[in-house]
Description:
Elements: H1 2-33, H2 42-58, H3 65-90, H4 93-116, H5 124-138, H6 141-148, H7 151-156
Amino acid sequence: xxxxxxxxxxxxxxxxxxxxxxxxxxxxxxxxxxxxxxxxxxxxxxxxxxxxxxxxxxxxxxxxxxxxxxxxxxxxxxxxxxxxxxxxxxxxxxxxxxxxxxxxxxxxxxxxxxxxxxxxxxxxxxxxxxxxxxxxxxxxxxxxxxxxxxxxxxxxxx
Length: 158
């Protein structure tokens, strides 16, 4: 019995480490992809939005609270880092004002959700609906990433 508990704890800590590494990598990649001076600057923003939404919704499926927090935190940090990069790169008063508003509303929405969500009992239908939204966030990630890497153009003009 002790051996099983030890192996389960190792597996849990290994998965926590993998999720932390994934989170750092995704935040760095999404932040570096979202360049406000490129021609198609909307494409990396949509990719970052879908990735962030998927990670936020995927975090609810983990039993371990720290693993869920890691994925949800990664999603929020992606949004905040992309906003900060846009504010620093564009340096216009409008961009800085919009980013400041987003950076104030993001934690406020998180605190409101943290106060409301744990005390609410959700129906299986609502849980299934959220799961379908998660799948809808997952579906466009790979086609958008391939489009961003110009794989479709390379195949078409081959």
